[in-house]
Each structure stands twice: as C-alpha cells, then as structure tokens.
Amino acid sequence: MTDYASFRQRLDAVLRTLDVQQVQQFLIDSKQWSADALPADPEFTMYMMIAGSVTMRDLHERARLWLESHGHTEEAQVMLGAGKKVGTRTGDQRNAKSGGGGNRAQNQKKGGPPQGRGRPR
Predict the structure, then answer these.
(1) Structural domain includes residue 111
(2) What is the DSSP letter of 61?
(3) What is the torsion angle, in degrees rounded to the nearest 10, for the CA atoms of residue 82, residue 85, residue 91 and residue 92?
(4) Which residue among 12, 41, 72, 85 is least packed, with the fewest CB closer than 10 Å?
(5) How far is residue 62's CA from residue 100's CA, in Å, rounded to a whole number?
(6) Is residue 120 included in any domain, yes or no?
(7) CA angle 72, 76, 77 (to 5 degrees)
C-alpha cells in the first residue's frame, strides 16, 4: 500500500468517528496541520473532508445536513450537489439547469457563424 493510500485509509477511519478533536490531533500528528496554524473552524473542515471523500458516501447526507444547518449551504451544494440523488452526476444537473451541454456545432448555430474563422470575403 502506498503512503498516501495508507494515510487516506487512516484519515477516513478517524473522520468516521465524527470527533473533531481526534481528527485535529490525527492531522497534527501526521504533519498535515500545524498546531500553530489550525483552521479557523475545524468542525467545518472535518465535514468538508467527509463531503469530499468518495469512500464516505454513507456520511454525505449527514455532512450536508451539518453544513446547511451551520450556514454553509453553498459549500454543501458545491461538494454534494443540490439535493443530489445517488447515481446522479453533478455535471448533468448543471447542464440541465443552465441549458448548457450539447455540442459545439449546435451551440454555434444558436449564436450565428463563428467569429474570427475562415477567410475574409
């Protein structure tokens, strides 16, 4: 197992405790955080780490609820999607909502001919 894989496995185990003090101490001991320069809100940081971990999907809803109930709705939406269901890709939601997506040829038809291409006539 690589050093990173081992670290990540141990970090996930500590994150699963949902104990901010244990997470903080683990990250200090692992030299990922400095005791002299801790995050301003270590609990927020812990829940963001959980939200960002693909191996902790079972805790994503709990992270979302904590983030939203503590004024971090935008961060929850960025990390976990807006009410995202299991198996839904964030990019699909973004494209559906904004009308984006499609291919270049279709998008060019909407706005007229491409600018700055071809020879002058």
Answers:
(1) no
(2) H
(3) -110
(4) 85
(5) 30
(6) no
(7) 120
Return d(Cα 72, Cα 8) in angstroms, integer. 25
For 53, 55, 115, the CA distances from 75, given in Å and listed in that order, are 14, 19, 37
Q: How many residues appear in the chain?
A: 121
Is there a domain that residue 21 lies in?
A: yes
The position carrying tokens 């973004």 is: 94
* Amino acid letter for position 1: M
Q: Contact at 8 Å (CB) between 75 and 48? A: yes
Domain coverage including residue 72: 3-80
Tens-digit pLDDT profile for residues 29-72: 999 999 999 999 999 999 999 999 999 999 999 999 999 999 99
What is the model's pLDDT at position 16? 98
